[in-house]
Write a structure and sequence with these properties.
This protein is α+β, with helices and mostly antiparallel strands and about 230 residues long. The protein has a 6-stranded mixed beta sheet. Helix 1 runs antiparallel to helix 3. The longest helix is centred in the middle third of the chain and has 15 residues. The radius of gyration is 24 Å and the shape is elongated.
Amino acid sequence: MTFIQVIDCRTHRADELDRLMDDWVRATRGKRTATHSVVGRDRSDSAHVVEIVEFPSHEEAVRNSHLPETDRAFREMVRVCDTEPTFTDLEVSRDEQFNTGVVRTFVEEVINGRNLGAADGLCTGDYLEHDPSLSSHTVRLAQAKEENQEIMEAFQPVMTIESLIAEGDLVCARLSYTGRHTGAYRGLEPTGREVSGTGHATFRCVDGRIAESWWNWDDLGLLRQIGAVGL
């Protein structure tokens, strides 16, 4: 289970504390077990600094604390703080990534559920879709729905999210799909052949809705599977 450590500091030497953290990151490269760190300064009290560090588990956090580089960094941290930092250890009982949730819903309802109308509620009004396989590299929502309708009717794809990574307002998805060529596609009559492939998509989210997306697929591989191009 993910483990979080909250380090609460009071210091009037925040810039020096930042440099110490940079030094620790460089010194522990390839050794540390921490996976994510966020540092924040209290807007109402500039001397109040909080660092939140994420680990895969409590055991990994203990391993990290036993590194000699971590011990040196802590002693230096105490030196630049007004009072000794306090530590709060948290076992994560709930971890919600709201932007990944809207992406999962988009895949399940719009693509796997064959409900293109659901995109109206999941995407912003000024949504843009970037996909080199469409008629234009950048299209708005109405055109994206129209062109993707042909793809869905031609192949009846079932998409699987293999992994999701979120950072800020962006969500990157590693995807795979299976389907069958049962409808006309770009003037090609249905062959009945089974198809499969992989791709990546990146989504930009605003206020819980998708504002922009970038799609990349193995289109050549798809055309080969239905016999449209040679091997």
